[in-house]
Structures are given as structure tokens and as C-alpha cells.
Specification:
This protein has a single domain, classed as Maltoporin, Chain A, CATH 2.40.170. It is mainly β. The strands form five sheets. It has a 22-stranded antiparallel beta barrel. A five-stranded mixed beta sheet has the order 1-6-7-4-5. The chain has eight helices and 38 strands.
Length: 761
């Protein structure tokens, strides 16, 4: 049985609906009276935004019983020098960022409260963005997306019910840009260390005839990367058109990203990082490196080493997104909103592999000169060809006194075709370039619906939230090791949430909440599981309690949290061939901590921002499995009360901003991240050391007669050139009657500089 990725009826309906809804809304809207010439013109963004498409019910506010951080458009613009989105969120509580190539361009990652990207729910205008199968978020597929954003809300913990994969540590609620009342154009260029360039062109019509607006962006980013051969070439565009009625709005977004990134996901071996000659020689002997690879290891820079040498060892992928967003204020009590979406993605990574068994690719042995040859050097491509489509809806009712009720949900389908091709081989026998040596298809259907209610009484606000989610995931075909795949695991989850907040004064709030949630394993969890043993779904109980104060010159949030897991899929420390981590269920584990986030405007010139996260992250019982190459099978070792991998107990950030004039500012940012263990054994020999970094940023804007407004930006990262590693992996095995541990690290760039020039017309 093969799952269709070409002729989905639902997919065609969604694409047709996007077109028809646009046309229908425009035709109906044309019957509305046209304003007279002397009508009062809309001259502020606030008026436009009142009719803008809003995502109902997904965001928290100052009265909500939840923990969150808002990042507005001005902050995003100030921080955007061309790095991926995680690097713009670094100065928020509990965030740790990393980059494969070491400088923030290419493959990057973000962890919040120690949880990795597969636990961070990401929505764009309420539409799920996480990859349906891996559940991760690949920011490299959306280069310079920050240039088209209005705001980001980071909800820590379970957060409010939303669409897509469950939030098991945080959620990112992203809203694309709202419209300007007036026409505009921008030319934004950045240049910096490691041959990094960003070129962005933006333009918008403003509001046309009080009804229409159109916006466009085109971006290109290139970088050689800090790591050897860690180059990236990224391209993207963003198109948006909106029609505004008296009480409704219709918006269509089309955006796309294409990336070509040289692979740097193997990291640097511990012996190379520390310049241990004997350790490198032992590594060469254990792993059978040939002369070329051994020379590369021994002669490379300790912090910039890349094990890949093949010139076309690239990751190539493109992704197109189509969104239709409709909002209507039906009357004084009812609001409704729905969205249709379709995402098309396709790409491959290419790699040169030495001395491969022909049989592993379904190829016959080759006889040359009477000698049978069963191994060959070859170049292979592993493809992903996918479609993601569906719809979301939300109804909001405020007709009951003191009540606000929201009914919302979504239905989405994902079709993914995974296959591999050998495009060149020294000895190819019965192979050809188009032949698929493995081929399997994944189909995921995801339905959720949730009901939220808020009740206000005097200074108290109570809320309740119940979500039902059903996930059906199947995988059929042959995997990359030529083994049959037959995964089918339908799951249903009930995710209730409740809480209350108390308004101490107009400026101060207390809140508390309790949430239950669950989420499904990802594709690799199923494929890597032992035969006939499915991985377990994860379950989480989350308690949040906090205090917020908002004054003209001082804002602060202080909160405590507890997250108790059942069957959490923890990262083991090992990675697969594309740098994604293996995970395994553990029976009981928890995260507990305190978080603090504050901003103090001392006067017109001085501004201080502080954030801190202190946590304890533990697994009650963990079993480590080691392959035994002496006796065969595996050896199991039990550990008790160990730290969860990649979960620092301290993350502290500070920023001091000095503005001697209204158009000039200097910023000093510091960030401390505590030590992190590479696996769940809490072994000091397998960890990332703690580090503290300092960054400097300058912003200056001015206007010259006859010229547009000019903005200059300068950023110096890692000012004191501190040598640190923000990510890594480890694996171990039994060989020659002893344990062999292989640690690998991802060194980040030393001192590096970015300069930005922005012309605004």
C-alpha cells in the first residue's frame, strides 16, 4: 500500500477555497457603500489594526494566568542582522541557542526550560509550523522571516491551548506583519564576519481606498560559516495582500524559503577540540579513517574542524507556504475567524559515502577482471517530498456578563514521501540515477478542538480550558536500511487547563494555573523503537504561579513552575546521520524552577533589562544501553536521580542600554548558561561547560535632506572571544573489554562583527 502524496482531494479543496474565498469576499465587499471624498481618512496604524486579522484565543495578556514574554516589532527589527530567529530570542528567560555552523546562519536551534525544539509548539498566525513527523522546527527553511513579523509571544510551560503538536516546555506564537497606513519601501543590507551578507528589499502600498493593502519582501543571505565549509546560501520572499470590510478582513499570505547549506551536523570530536594527538590517533584507529579523513582530522583547526570533505555535501530544501486568514466581527457579541493553509516542501541532502556494501542499496555484486566486487564508493541523495494542509477556526462570544467564551480548533493532514537515490557509484551494477533504493510514506492526520472560558468577578479572573486532540499516524514502505516499515498508532488526548488571576492594583497581578497535556512520539521514535514495541505517548502535569507588575518605568515578572512528566521522551545524547537526537521513554521525571524577567527605565538615557532562570531537572530512574562489540547484544546500566540532558540549572541574561540622544543607542548584553550534560547519566566526562558571553550593539539613525531615513547598526558578538560549545552529543560502546566513549561538540564563533545599513523611504 502506498499513501498518495499527489492527488489528495482535501489538498485540492483547500487550494481552490483560498482562491474562491478571496474572490467571494471581494465581490460581496464591493456592495458596501464607498466613502465620500470628504470622509475622514484613516491616518494611523491603530485604526487599520482594529480591522486586522487577529488570532482569537491563542495569546495571553497581563490578566492571564500564564507565563509569557512578548517581543514586539521594534525589538525584532533592532536585533535582526540576518541570523536565524532563535538568535533574536536569546535575551528571554530560560532560552539557550545553538548553531551548527557556529555563527547563527544555517541550521540553528533553541531550547527553552531545557526542552528541545520538538517540545516547543510554533504557530504562524495560528497555523502550525512544526514539522508534523519530526515535530522539530527548521528555521533555516525560513531565512530572514524576522523581517516580515509583527510580534512573537513566548509562552513558557504548557501555555494556552493552541493548534499543532503539544507544548511540552514552551510555545512560540508568531504573528506576521500588520499593515502600515502609508506606503513605504526599505533596503536593508548587512555584512559581517565569515563572509556573511544579508540583502533585503521590502515595500508596501499602505492602505488603498480604505480597503486594500499589499506588502512584499525579497531576501538573500549567504555565509561561509565559522566552521570549515559550513557555508549557507538562503533565499526567501514574503507576499501579503489584504482586503478590509467594515467589520471583516481577509488576508492572503504567500511566503517561501530555499536553503542550500553545507553539512556541519557531525560536530568536532573531543580529541580534536582539545588538541589531543594520541586521542585523535586512537579515534582514527577505532573508526577506520582512511588517509584523507585522518589528515583532515589531524591538520584542521581544533574549533573549526568539519569531517565532511565532499564539495557537494549539501542540504538542499525549499518550502512554500500559502495562508488564507479571514476574520469577522459578526455583531457586538460574536467574533469568528477561520484560516486555510497549504505548505509544499521538497528537498534532499547529498553525501559521498566510501566503501559501501552494494547489497545495502539493493545492488548486485559487480565482477571486474574475474574479481567479484561487493563494495563501492558512491554518492547518494536522501529526499523528503511533503505536503501539509488543513484549516483552523475560532468563535468568540462575549454576550454573557463577565464571561468570554472561545470555541476553536483545527484539522490538518501531512503527507511525506521519504526516499533515497544513488546518483553516482564507482561500481553501480544494476543501478541508475532515478532508481529509489528505499521508499516509504508517512501520513498524519491531526484534529483538535478546544473550549475556553474566562469569568471575571471584581478583581478575580477565572479560566477553564479543555482540548480534545486526535492524532492518526501511519508509515508504510521500506526504510533506509531496507527494512519494512509498518507503523500505525492512533492516539487520543484530553488536555484540560484551569487557573485564576487576581488584580492587586491597576499595575499588579497574581496568577496560578494547573494544566494536563499529552503528545505523541515523533517519526524517529517509532522507527528506532525495538521491533513490536511502540514508544509511549508523553504526559505532563504543569503548575505555574507568578506575580506581574507593569508601571511606566518598571516592568517585572516573577514566577515558579513545576513540570512532572510520565513517559517523557528524553534525549539520550546520541544523534542519527542527520544530526537529530535519539530519544527514549523514562517513567518519571520533572522540571522545577524560578524565573525572573524585569525592565527598569532609569531615565531618558538609561535602561536595564534582566532575566534569570533557576531550575532543577531530574529523571528518577534512567537505563543506559551500550552496544557490546565483544559479546554482542547490549549492556544495561541503571542510574537514579540524574539530571536531564541539555538542561542547565542556571540561565541568566542582562542588558544595559545607554541612549545619549534620541537617535543613538549603545547596548551591552551579557548571558550566562550553566553546565549541561550530554546524556542522562550526569557524568562529568560527558558535559558542556558553563559559559558567559558579552555582546555590544550600536544603533544610530539620521536623515539627510533629499534622502530617506538611514539606520545604522553594529553588533559585536562574543566581545571577549570566549571559547565555548553550546551543543554536542555522545555515544558509548563496549570494545576490547572496556567502555569507549565518543564525545562531540559544536564550537561557536569567537569574536564576530555584523554591520547593518537600512534605508527607509
Amino acid at each position: 500500500m502506498k499513501l498518495s502524496t499527489k492527488n489528495s482531494t482535501l489538498k485540492k479543496i483547500i487550494l481552490a477555497s483560498i482562491t474562491l474565498c478571496c474572490a467571494a469576499h471581494i465581490v460581496v465587499a464591493q456592495t458596501s457603500p464607498v466613502r465620500k471624498e470628504n470622509s475622514k481618512k484613516l491616518d494611523t496604524n491603530k485604526v487599520i489594526q482594529a480591522r486586522e486579522v487577529e488570532i482569537i484565543g491563542n495569546r495571553l495578556n497581563s490578566k492571564s494566568a500564564g507565563t509569557f514574554k512578548n517581543v514586539d516589532k521594534s525589538t525584532i527589527e533592532k536585533l535582526n542582522f540576518g541570523q536565524d530567529l532563535p538568535f533574536l530570542l536569546d535575551n528571554t528567560p530560560g532560552v539557550v541557542i545553538t548553531s551548527d555552523a557556529g555563527a547563527g546562519v544555517g541550521y540553528t536551534g533553541i531550547r527553552i526550560r531545557g526542552t528541545d525544539a520538538t517540545r516547543v509548539n510554533v504557530t504562524i498566525n495560528g497555523i502550525p509550523y512544526n514539522d508534523s513527523e519530526s515535530q522539530g522546527t527548521f528555521w533555516v527553511n525560513m531565512p530572514d522571516f524576522a523581517s516580515s513579523l509583527e510580534s512573537i509571544q513566548i509562552q513558557r510551560g504548557v501555555g494556552t491551548s493552541t493548534n499543532g503538536a503539544g507544548a511540552f516546555g514552551a510555545s512560540l506564537n508568531i504573528q506576521t506583519q500588520l499593515q502600515s497606513a502609508t506606503a513605504y519601501a526599505e533596503l536593508n543590507n548587512s555584512v559581517g564576519s565569515f563572509g556573511t551578507f544579508k540583502n533585503t528589499v521590502k515595500a508596501g502600498t499602505g492602505l488603498i481606498n480604505d480597503r486594500w493593502s499589499f506588502d512584499a519582501r525579497l531576501s538573500r543571505i549567504s555565509s561561509d560559516g565559522f566552521v570549515d565549509r559550513g557555508a549557507s546560501l538562503l533565499k526567501s520572499y514574503f507576499l501579503s495582500g489584504a482586503y478590509y470590510g467594515k467589520k471583516s478582513s481577509l488576508r492572503v499570505n504567500v511566503f517561501s524559503g530555499a536553503e542550500k547549506t553545507y553539512q556541519a551536523w557531525n560536530g568536532v570530536s573531543e580529541s580534536r577540540l582539545h588538541g589531543d594527538i594520541q586521542g585523535m590517533q586512537d579515534y582514527i584507529d577505532r573508526n577506520g579513517l582512511d588517509t584523507e579523513d585522518a589528515t583532515n582530522l589531524l591538520n584542521s583547526d581544533s574549533r573549526r574542524y568539519n569531517s565532511f570533505l565532499y564539495p557537494d555535501q549539501n542540504d538542499n530544501y525549499w518550502q512554500d507556504h500559502y495562508q488564507l486568514l479571514y476574520s469577522n466581527a459578526l455583531n457586538a457579541d460574536w467574533n469568528m475567524q477561520f484560516a486555510l493553509h497549504y505548505t509544499r516542501g521538497k528537498g534532499y541532502f547529498e553525501e559521498f559515502k566510501k566503501y559501501q556494501r552494494l547489497s545495502n542499496y539493493g545492488l548486485n555484486p559487480v565482477t571486474v577482471g574475474g574479481t567479484e566486487i561487493s563494495r563501492t564508493d558512491l554518492v547518494r541523495r536522501r529526499w523528503l517530498d511533503n505536503h501539509f494542509y488543513g484549516g483552523t477556526y475560532a468563535f468568540q462570544y462575549g454576550g454573557f456578563k463577565n464571561w468570554q467564551i472561545i470555541l476553536a480548533g483545527a484539522y490538518n493532514e501531512y503527507e511525506g514521501d521519504h526516499y533515497g537515490q544513488v546518483i553516482w557509484a564507482q561500481y553501480a551494477s544494476n543501478g541508475n540515477n532515478s532508481r529509489k533504493y528505499y521508499d516509504n510514506q508517512g501520513l498524519k492526520k491531526d484534529f483538535n478542538s478546544y473550549l475556553k472560558a474566562n469569568y471575571s468577578l471584581a478583581n478575580w479572573t477565572f479560566f477553564g480550558d479543555i482540548q480534545f486532540r486526535q492524532v492518526d499516524y501511519t508509515v508504510l514502505g521500506i526504510d533506509k536500511n531496507l527494512n519494512p516499515l509498518n507503523v500505525a498508532d492512533p492516539l487520543q488526548f484530553w488536555n484540560p487547563k484551569m487557573g485564576l488571576s487576581y488584580q492587586l492594583s491597576a499595575e499588579q497581578h497574581l496568577y496560578g494555573s494547573f494544566s494536563l497535556t499529552a503528545k505523541e512520539p515523533n517519526r524517529d521514535d517509532y522507527i528506532n523503537a525495538n521491533l513490536n514495541v511502540l514508544p509511549q505517548a508523553e504526559h505532563l502535569q504543569n503548575v505555574e504561579a507568578g506575580y506581574r507588575i507593569q508601571k511606566n518605568n518598571f516592568n517585572m515578572g516573577l514566577n515558579a513552575y513545576g513540570m512532572w512528566y510520565k513517559d517523557q521522551l528524553v534525549i539520550t545524547g546520541k544523534i542519527n546521520e542527520v544530526g537529530e537526537y535519539y530519544r527514549q521513554n523514562v517513567d518519571k521525571s520533572y522540571r522545577m524552577g524560578l524565573e525572573w524577567d524585569a525592565q527598569w527605565v532609569l531615565n531618558e538615557k538609561w535602561n536595564v533589562l534582566l532575566n534569570a532562570a533557576f531550575s532543577k531537572n531530574k529523571i528518577q530512574n534512567f537505563t543506559e544501553y551500550l552496544d557490546d562489540y565483544d559479546l554482542g547484544g547490549q549492556q544495561a546500566t541503571d542510574y537514579k536521580n540524574t539530571d536531564i540532558s541539555f538542561s542547565p540549572n542556571q540561565v541568566i541574561g542582562a542588558e544595559l542600554v545607554y541612549s545619549p540622544a534620541s537617535n543613538l543607542s549603545f547596548s551591552w548584553q551579557s548571558k550566562y548558561v550553566g553546565k549541561q550534560y550530554l546524556d542522562n547519566t550526569q557524568n562529568e566526562g560527558r558535559k558542556l561547560n558553563d559559559f558567559m558571553l558579552h555582546h555590544l550593539r550600536l544603533g544610530y539613525q539620521f536623515k539627510v535632506n533629499g534622502l530617506p531615513r538611514i539606520q545604522l547598526g553594529l553588533k559585536v558578538e562574543n566581545l571577549f572571544a570566549y571559547q565555548y560549545e553550546s551543543n554536542g552529543y555522545t555515544y558509548a560502546y563496549i570494545y576490547d573489554n572496556s567502555r569507549v566513549t565518543e564525545n562531540f561538540y559544536f564550537p561557536q564563533a569567537g569574536r564576530n562583527v555584523m554591520f547593518n545599513l537600512n534605508l527607509k523611504f
